[in-house]
Amino acid sequence: MFRWLFGQGRKKRQAIVDALYERIVAGARQPAFYAQLGVPDTPLGRFEMLSVHFFLFLHRVRDRQGALQDIAQELTDQFFQDLDHSLREIGIGDMGVPRRMKKFARMFYGRLASYTEAVDAGDEAALAEALKRNIHPDQEKWEGAAPLAAYVMRAAAALQSVSDEELAAGTLRLISFEQE
Hints:
The protein is an all-alpha fold. 27% of the residues are buried. It is built from 9 helices and no strands. The termini are far apart.
């Protein structure tokens, strides 16, 4: 108890959250998404890919209790803190940040719901449509949607092999886009 009060437990937990978040961000920054699939290399395009990879983690740990539930909440907090920081970094003022954060939260949780529904149903076509709608809403047909949906399905399945203990220790193995 005293370790937690005086920060030693918090430091360890923060190191775990940082390690997981770093892996999620690295997964989202794979060059193939932008170069091969045509995901826009813009702040919004990067938000979309970060959302996809954060979804993969949250989907893996949903319905878990205890440490994984706490870590998921801390990662969610870090995700939104990072988003807040990014908005300020690109010049959004103090008055505009809360409004935009609410918009991004609605966007993220909407994506979480549609991606969860498609992945749970094993419906790659529905997932591709959701990804197209979110990443390229202005295009009638986006050729990158189907390969990205296939990757998300493979990545979600691969994450099932990562044990709860590994995740709670900060180990997250995301497959690369090129990996079968």
